[in-house]
Write a structure and sequence with these properties.
Elements: E1 2-3, H1 8-17, E2 22-25, H2 30-46, E3 63-66, H3 74-80, H4 83-93, E4 98-107, E5 142-148, E6 160-161, H5 174-180, E7 182-183, E8 191-195, E9 200-201, E10 211-219, H6 229-232, H7 235-238, H8 243-249, H9 273-286
Parallel strand pairs: 1-2
Antiparallel strand pairs: 2-8, 3-4, 4-10, 5-8, 5-10, 6-7, 6-9
């Protein structure tokens, strides 16, 4: 756990080959977090129950999820597109990383623990026979962000994680999870980062108050996102977002495409027009 922003290379090494997580206290401004918190609790009251994951039953009245946050306020776009945070992810996921999901999770008193799991796009690793045999953690397809809007304590179900488990690339073993897990105790406005392969699970809220958090999932650009931004957010609205946010939502990413409807052209590869122009300019500069 540390305050401030760590050196990028140190952060990447820790996330990929070290303990597999970074917990950065006091990362986001207090006013921004307070606004996000007020909006989320209002949304929980206004919106019907939404789907969630890994709680073990079909209906969990003590748990609420609010999806599609980029479309629900500038405050959420500011949080999920924070450049300091993205700088820590880009060496892992590439400069063209995309936002797969940005949602809120609220655990009311009595909400039960999740089962230990890994996150999208790995989250059905329990069906191992469906996955490529050589799947491993030599490089990561997704990185998760957790931004607490309320204090995370042992009593209110602070997330449990297993340090180093991101290197295993397999579904959590419940006994090993119980033996090795630690709790992510943190203040509102902290930032917890970890690869999607890290074993983790929200825990039972045994307190008398609700706790809310913002959950972000970021992937390499060729992974289909969890939330279908092309249907969640009107294109004309998305085109009004800043360049970073448009990139995260894949506003101008062409795939999937109806290839029969595209004009005849060669648009990919090292010999694309952009690359040829860059090479030409470099060559001219050297003469």
């Amino acid at each position: 756990m540390c305050s401030g922003v760590p050196d990028v290379e140190t952060a990447v090494e820790e996330l990929c080959n070290g303990q597999g997580y970074l917990l950065l206290e006091d990362f986001f401004p207090r006013e921004l977090v307070a606004e996000a918190r007020e909006r989320i609790y209002r949304r929980v009251e206004e919106e019907p129950a939404r789907t969630s994951h890994f709680y073990g039953d079909e209906v969990n009245a003590a748990q609420a999820r609010v999806w599609n946050l980029p479309a629900k306020g500038q405050v959420f776009r500011d949080l999920c597109a924070d450049e300091r945070m993205l700088a820590l992810m880009r060496p892992i996921l590439g400069d063209d990383l995309m936002l797969s999901s940005f949602a809120a999770n609220v655990l009311h008193p009595g909400a039960q623990a999740q089962e230990p799991h890994v996150d999208y796009p790995y989250w059905d690793l329990h069906a191992r026979k469906r996955w490529p045999r050589a799947l491993n953690a030599s490089y990561h397809l997704a990185v998760e962000s957790v931004i607490p809007l309320d204090e995370f304590t042992v009593d209110n179900g602070a997330t449990a994680i297993v340090p180093g488990s991101q290197k295993l690339a397999c579904w959590p073993d419940p006994a090993e999870f119980a033996a090795r897990q630690i709790r992510a105790i943190m203040r509102p406005g902290a930032l917890l980062l970890f690869p999607a392969l890290l074993w983790h699970a929200g825990q039972t809220n045994r307190s008398g108050a609700s706790r809310a958090t913002l959950l972000g999932s970021y992937t390499i650009k060729s992974i289909k996102p969890i939330e279908d931004w092309s249907r969640c957010i009107r294109r004309d609205e998305a085109l009004g977002y800043d360049e970073t946010m448009q990139g995260l939502l894949g506003v101008n990413y062409p795939y999937p495409a109806v290839m029969d409807a595209l004009p005849g052209r060669s648009s990919e590869g090292a010999r694309s027009r952009e690359s040829i122009l860059s090479e030409g300019e470099a060559g001219n500069g050297a003469n």
